[in-house]
Structures are given as C-alpha cells and as structure tokens.
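From the shared-data thread, chain only:
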Amino acid sequence: MTLSLTLACLWAVAANIAAMIPSSDNHWTRAYLLIAAGIPLVGYVTYENGPWIGLATLVAGMSLLRWPVYYLASWGRRVLWRTE
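Structure, as tokens:
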C-alpha cells in the first residue's frame, strides 16, 4: 500500500474519532479541518495511484462528510435555479 493510501486511511480513522467526540458546534469546526486536510490528500492519492483510486477516495471522503456535501449541493441548486 502506498504512502498516500495509508494517509487516507489515517484520515478516515481520524474523521470517525472526531465524529465520536461530543461537540457544541455540531462538528462543523472539525469538518472544516478535515476538508482542509482531505482535499490535498485526495490530490496526492490521485497523483500516486491514478484517477480511479483518487475518485474512490473522494467518494469515501464524501460519505464520511456527507452534511457539508449536502449543504454545498443545496446552495448550488439555490444559486443555479435562482428566479429573480
């Protein structure tokens, strides 16, 4: 297993541990930190292992951080289909 995939697995473990710890802000601060660390990590995985493994890593990260993805899609729909 390559270094990038090992780091991606450690990121997933860290995301799961962060989700288990109680939070007063509904885990949004931790989500922002995980996103900031995860975006370059997905690029590194894609660089070392190819686009299909990079895409699988992206999907895995999106499944762990599903609420930020949901709110981003909701915001995108509002902006795209705005009626004025």
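The mean pLDDT is 92.
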